[in-house]
Design goal:
CATH class: Alpha Beta
Number of helices: 14
CATH topology: TIM Barrel
Bound molecules: 2-O-methyl-1,6-di-O-phosphono-D-mannitol
Radius of gyration: 19 Å
CATH superfamily: Aldolase class I
Strand content: 5-15%
Order of helices and strands: HEHHHEHHEEEHEHEHEHEHEHHH
Largest sheet: 8 strands, parallel, barrel
Oligomer: single chain
Structural class: alpha/beta
Number of domains: 1
Helix content: 40-55%
């Protein structure tokens, strides 16, 4: 008998754990590797991800699930062990990014529509057979002069809802990720603008999820935090936490079991501090945790630098970040703990 969506979602939101977003597409991982002067090949991508997935302590204590790119889902570690088996052995759930990317939206200059619905039902069947029990789809909303438009919010929201319904049909928990970018052009918007836009987006998304008959108990929301533009950051940790919690309480039904934030270009420490502040001092109807890509991986990538002799250093860095975020998921992170590392 296949697992219940609610049970998979609950496992993904286990106390003090969160998701590792390691689903960089080939072009994004190339950018990340460029920053350490490493060529992106199937082997270097495998070695990097193997280093992360074999970080025993972080994986067992802090990571409830890993979002992979399609290549990684079907990839094997150097000794031939499938990555899916490594992840399961650590007690985490294997997941897969199923969108095929945010593409320029016809007639909407400066905005994108996320593609990947054609043939998705068949792909989901293959991913399920390969061991994936959750999926992710990211719709991207840009704040800029006159943007976002209603047309782009609506189109991205409907795609998210269609994707989520197909996942549930396949026995896969959908992570619904509508990301309002922190770094639009010029990326100087206020925290109030971010609140307003994110509220409109979440209201549209939940209305479309309802229309698409998506079972809220069997999905996870992956939103941005309410935060000011990357090039004009001044809001305090408490302000980000307070406005994010207020927005979510007003717009996310309590039937949703969990919310796992993206980090969106915040520094690793900021992303941890914000999450911890939200998990201390607020009475919340859902579990709040992390689904970070950059904020979990950045230090590990730098420490590794693409060199075999640095694998242990990369794993130490990943362990530390994962541990800090695990504390934040319980509201127990303190700045002093960063120095201890
Ligand atoms: C890891 O990056 C993900 C994939 O992006 P591309 O398809 O552009 O390669 C991305 O969707 C990610 O899962 C989320 O944005 C969260 O990552 P961050 O770095 O924002 O925490």
């Amino acid at each position: 008998m296949s697992e219940r969506l609610e049970d998979i979602a609950e496992k993904m939101m286990a106390d003090g754990k969160g998701l590792l977003a390691a689903d960089e597409s080939t072009s994004t991982i190339k950018k990340r590797f460029d920053s350490i002067d490493l060529e992106s090949t199937e082997t270097s991508r495998r070695d990097y991800r193997e280093m992360l997935f074999r970080t025993d302590e972080a994986m067992k204590k802090c990571i409830s699930g890993v979002i992979m790119f399609e290549e990684t889902l079907f990839q094997k570690a150097a000794d031939g062990t499938p990555f899916v088996d490594l992840i399961k052995a650590a007690g985490a759930v294997p997941g897969i990014k199923v969108d095929t990317g945010a593409k320029p939206m016809a007639a909407f200059p400066g905005e994108t529509i996320t593609e990947g619905l054609d043939g998705l039902r068949e792909r989901l069947g293959d991913y399920y057979k390969a061991g994936a029990r959750f999926a992710k789809w990211r719709g991207v909303i840009t704040i800029s002069e006159g943007l976002p438009t209603w047309g782009s919010i609506k189109a991205n929201s409907q795609a998210l809802a269609r994707y989520a319904a197909l996942c549930q049909e396949a026995g896969i928990v959908p992570i619904v990720e509508p990301e309002v970018l922190m770094d639009g052009k010029p990326g100087t918007h206020s925290i109030e603008t971010c609140y307003e836009v994110t509220e409109k987006v979440l209201q549209t998304v939940f209305a479309d999820l309802f229309d698409a008959r998506v079972m809220l108990e069997g999905m996870i929301l992956k939103p941005n935090m309410v935060i000011d533009g990357k090039n004009a950051r001044k809001a305090s940790v408490d302000q980000v936490a307070e406005m994010t919690v207020k927005l979510l309480k007003r717009n996310v039904p309590s039937a949703v079991p969990g919310i796992a934030f993206l980090s969106g270009g915040q520094s690793s420490e900021e992303a941890t501090a914000h999450l911890s502040a939200m998990n201390s001092g607020y009475d919340l109807p859902w579990a709040l945790t992390y689904s970070y890509g950059r904020a979990l991986q950045e230090d590990a990538l730098k420490a590794w630098g693409g060199k075999t002799e640095n694998v242990a250093a990369g794993q130490r860095a990943f362990n530390h970040r994962a541990h800090m975020n695990s504390l934040a998921a319980k509201g127990n992170w303190k700045k002093e703990l960063e120095k201890a590392a």
